Amino acid sequence: MAEKTDQIDFVWQGLDKVKNKTKGEISAISEVVAKAELRRQGFRVTSIKKKAKPLFGARPKPITPGDIAIFARQLATMMGAGLPLVQAIDIVGRGHENPSMQAMLMKIKGDIEAGDTLAEALQRHPIQFDELFCNLVRAGEQAGVLESLLDKVATYKEKSESMKKKIKKALTYPIAVLVVAFLVTAILLLFVVPVFEDLFKSFGADLPAFTRMVIDMSAWLQAWWYVVLGILLGAYYTFDFFKKRSKAFNHFLDRMLLQVPVVGLIINKSAIARFARTLSTMSAAGLPLVEALVSVAGSCGNIIYAEAVMKMREDVANGQRLQFAMQQTGIWPHMVQQMVAIGEEAGSMDAMLSKVADFYEEEVDNLVDNLSSLMEPIIMVILGILVGGLIVAMYLPIFKLGAVVS
């Protein structure tokens, strides 16, 4: 196998086959190789040089899971149309709008041309292509059904990303509104309430208890705002630190999230849907169950479910049927266990699990819609209490003064 060398980006100018001026970019291991490739494509190069890096090192656009899902679908479609693998990757890469994705695909293409299989080339990019993706591609290459497996991978990725986006959308909106509400409340307490306080002093009358409480809150926040800000930032960084480094903290957090009303139900059902969809895809690819369960555990999105799947893997490796291994964990619904049992008996595990995944994905969709409907009145109540309460507190003395004058 040829030794790999990092490719370099070049910009070039030249003439095409009909002597028209043209220009473009190309990635190659050296300028000589770049010129040779352009000559092979029918261009006569007049100038070529390394692509200049941005002066201030602009951050490259990140590669998203959505980009990977689209790549899998496009590659499956092109191979289904009869295009060779290298040519298909080249077309997808050059046509991609994300420069980072384009550069990665050109590297993958170069690795394959140097003798790697597609699975080996993808494994060089573990952040973008997880173990499950690489295992499915490897199985497809070994069985000679890469096109079919890529289609299954694309379907899996599309459904998985669709479910993630729906859950994020449902949770992002209320969180964003509440954050803005608390920011507006802080601004009112810091800058607006003190103006009213000066006005009230000129009245020379006793203030209502509610107004006095708000003014005292404003005075306290003006005196200690930096402490509050420090506590909030400290809490955020502490949370982030332990979430990235502490397995025990993540275990506690995931277990607590499962107990939250509505949200916990969404997380439970989405974990089951991911389990079923992933295992269905890997079963259809013909991967051994013990090997498949390792990737399935990582796809659940919740440590409690991931640990349950790894316990099931140990039991299956010791000769136990998957249905009984699921029963012993105590977290899988009876319906899921029965569908797995039917799949094991009939030899149609992938079809049964696909039906389970479809059912729970629809359940998640309904719960997400219900969550959005439920959160709207709750958000309105919180906004009314925070912002409306401050406004009422500031106008109570004015109303009281008006009543005295009248």
From TrEMBL:
Topology relative to the lipid bilayer, per the entry, is: Multi-pass membrane protein
* Signal sequence coordinates: none
| Bilayer-spanning residue ranges | 170-193, 223-242, 378-398
Q: What are the recorded Gene Ontology BP terms? A: protein secretion by the type II secretion system
> What are the UniProt keywords, alphabetically?
Cell inner membrane, Cell membrane, Membrane, Transmembrane, Transmembrane helix, Transport
Keyword Transmembrane helix assigned = yes
One GO location term (cellular component): plasma membrane
InterPro entries for the chain: GspF/PilC, T2SS_GspF/T4SS_PilC_CS, T2SS_GspF_dom, T2SS_GspF_sf
Q: What is its main location?
A: membrane
Name where it's found.
Cell inner membrane
Q: Which residues form the Type II secretion system protein GspF domain?
A: 71-194, 275-397
Spell out the family assignment given in the record's similarity comment. Belongs to the GSP F family.
The family database entries (PANTHER family) matched by this protein are listed as: GENERAL SECRETION PATHWAY PROTEIN, PROTEIN TRANSPORT PROTEIN HOFC HOMOLOG
Name of the protein? Type II secretion system F family protein
Q: Which organism is it from?
A: Methylovulum psychrotolerans
Q: What is the lineage of its organism?
A: Bacteria, Pseudomonadati, Pseudomonadota, Gammaproteobacteria, Methylococcales
